[in-house]
Amino acid sequence: MAAGAMVLLVSSCSAITMMSEEQKVVELRRAGELGAEAHVTLLAELAFPTPEACLNNLKRFTGGAPWDEPYSSTADWLSLYGDYFVDSCVSGKARVPGK
After folding, report:
1. Helices 75-91 and 21-44, axial angle in degrees (round to 10)
2. DSSP state string for 25-81
3. Which of 38, 43, 61, 62 is deepest in the core (most CB within 10 A)?
4. How far is Cα 42 from Cα 36, in angstroms, rounded to an integer?
């Protein structure tokens, strides 16, 4: 029984990889959509969606940026993800990767 559990543990660890560029595009698109939704929610709460207000609410609306590396996120990725969310939150229009 213990040997089987050990094999499962080792094999599950080896499956963790870096986020692909395609996955990053999907996550950035999601951050933009969530930011646009946050814009509407903040207005409904009678809060003006300023860059500061949006940044302060990033984790509330997104749960935080997904990891782009095994077990962590790089500073560049966190910044980019946050930029997509905040830009969309302030404007009310989802920022789309590549545009």
Report:
1. 40
2. HHHHHHHHHHHHHHHHHHHHTT----HHHHHHTHHHHH-SPPPSBTTB--HHHHHHH
3. 38
4. 10
pTM of the shown model: 0.82
By three-state DSSP, how is residue 84 classified?
Answer: helix
User: Tens place of pLDDT for every residue, the chain, 99 residues?
Assistant: 454 444 433 334 445 689 999 999 999 999 999 999 999 999 999 999 999 999 999 999 999 999 999 999 999 999 999 999 999 999 999 999 986
Element (H, E) at 87: helix 75-91
Instruction: Tell me the DSSP string of 14-39.
Output: HT--PPPHHHHHHHHHHHHHHHHHHH
Please give the single-letter amino acid code of residue 24. K
Contacting residues for 19 by C-beta, under 8 A, at least 6 apart: 27, 66, 67, 68, 69, 77
